[in-house]
Description:
Elements: E1 7-17, E2 27-31, H1 33-41, E3 44-50, E4 53-59, H2 62-74, E5 77-84, H3 87-92, E6 100-102, E7 109-113, E8 121-126, H4 127-133, E9 138-143, E10 147-155, E11 165-169, E12 180-183, E13 189-194, E14 199-200, E15 209-215, E16 218-226, E17 242-248
Parallel strand pairs: 1-9, 10-17
Antiparallel strand pairs: 1-4, 2-5, 3-4, 5-8, 6-9, 7-8, 10-13, 10-14, 11-15, 12-13, 15-16
Amino acid sequence: MTHCESYLILGKIVILHEYYSITKCPVNLVLNDISSKWLQNADIIFRQTQHNEWMFFMEKSAIAYQRRKLILKETPILKLAMVPLNQEFYYVTEHTKTVSVIPNENDLVDITNSFIPKVWKELAINISQWTKSNTKNSIDILIPSCEKYWEYFIIPKRDWPSYPLSIKEENNNIVFQQKEMAILPDGSKAYRYTSLSSIKMTQSNRYIMKLLEIRKGGEKTICASLPHPTPVNRSIDHSQNTISHYYYL
């Protein structure tokens, strides 16, 4: 029997954030001291195994199994803290919406706001309900991303373009206001285009943004795929609801 085959997976917790579709969601799950001691006494190991996935597992032995049953009778609630690892997590997360849990029958999981420094949410998992009702032994925590307005700054390196410019999304899912002149922090001038509505934040490139030159004979493509604005570039107006991208002609 291999080392992996000697362990039994009891369950797992998976964090799914709408924004982090490419990179790992920067959040950690931390057991409180009492829950950590409970699991240790029951010979249950809690460990992060993949990006955004944590597992509970134990040795496949009759003695360990009986010990686990005894401990679970005494400790029906497991408590964990969700600890963000950077400020970007807070910026891209929609804090006014409820964090969803699948499955969550019979009050399997309770998620509450935390007043502990550096802790975002606190989880309380009813272990007895989990082992009885969740056939997949998996708890998925779904975190919503927030919506932001997009703005593009088009900056000429030398001369201003002879023809009017326009930014269009390939399938017209995003519509921009008419351009306006903007003064950047370094004093240079730029055309600013701002979306009419806010857009759900995600790392995936769901939209194809084109920069076009409008001529009498039709449209000329200047850039076939403008990069999406990201949380790294906030609006020069310091608006928390707007992210930007700077494009040099």
